[in-house]
Amino acid sequence: MEMTILFVGFAILLVLGAPITFAMAIPATIAFMVSPDLPSTAICQKLFAACDSFSLMAMPFFMLAGGMMNEIGITKRIVDFANSLVGHIRGGLAHTTSLAGMIMAGISGSANADAAALGGLLLSPLIEDGYDEGFACGLVSTCGVLGVVIPPSILMVVYSGVSNVSISKLFMAGIIPGIMCGVFYMIYAYIYARVKKMPRRKFMGWGYVWSMFKQAIGALIMPIIIIGSILGGICTATESGMLAVVYGLLYGIITHQLDYKKLKRCTIAAARATAMSMSMIAMACVFSYIMTRMNFPEIVTAFMTNNFNSKYGTIFAIIVILIIMGMFVDSNAAMLMMVPIFAPICQVYGLDTIHFSMIILLSMINGGLTPPVGLVLYIVASIKNIPLKKACTAVWAFVGINVFVLVLVVFFPSIVTFIPNTLLG
Question: Nearest 5°: CA angle at 182, between 176 and 184?
């Protein structure tokens, strides 16, 4: 009965448009009230335990660091630098968008923020350059979600907080698949440009590249600080977030581009985003606790191992479930709900923890792109009032690329385990 209340209540509230936190909280509270097997004191204990995590402290720091860099206006310098490197290749502006997306992902870690910044700067030029509105919207949106894979990823921070997987190893594991996604976007853009017979631009020379690099060096240093400090054993991922905030603050003050109003604005934005995420994490922990008490993970594990005769069959079943769920539920909430269910399956098949974690994370990145939720896609489309039908049609090619990279990761675990195992042991 408790499971019926939990899932039926969640589905009804979701359909009615209730915020995801309340869609989990209300049925969970009712389940506690009607079940004699669920102690009421556990609600407070689980709410506190979910938030009492050193790893989750990294979330506000990375959000604030990325917000400060966006307020400083560093996005344009990154775009100019990327354009100087790859703008002369056929489909140059699309390549610029992909490369800028990869660099931005290493600064912010927030898909929504990256997509909004890139869209405001590149959407109009892409359309004016001859790219279809749908293609331009799909490309910018997909480059925005690279922030979920390339460190510092907020979704990785959340995953680490609820699963006790090393956040440092997750950060390192995301580097190669994130770059692979970006490179495949560029290959697709090149093919698109050739089919459309788009002209090539003249290479401006290495002197111009150097001058653009010097302008963007302030932003390029931040990912080096984050990744370098972790790899060097100088600090943890959470402490690297603090270093990123200090660097962003000093850079803004020294360049006279960060004043009190901008700092206040990005601090409030980071605090609000953190509060929303933490409330969702806390309620998801209560939700998961009920499922665990009702032995739901064991039921799912037994069902999948009995009906799927191979490790890969089970993995792909999980991927399909997560991709479909991501179409209707926020990626954070979907991950928080499903990780406790699927974690025992990882142990049954003896999967590497980092490999399995990255499969789940890569399965979730399309949630911001695929309708009906597709928040990242909607944000970008709203910038230039692009019809959603065009955007939704064009984005599926990029979703296919993400799924292709995910399939490669499933069959070749070293794509995600090589860097963390080599550098962190």
Answer: 100
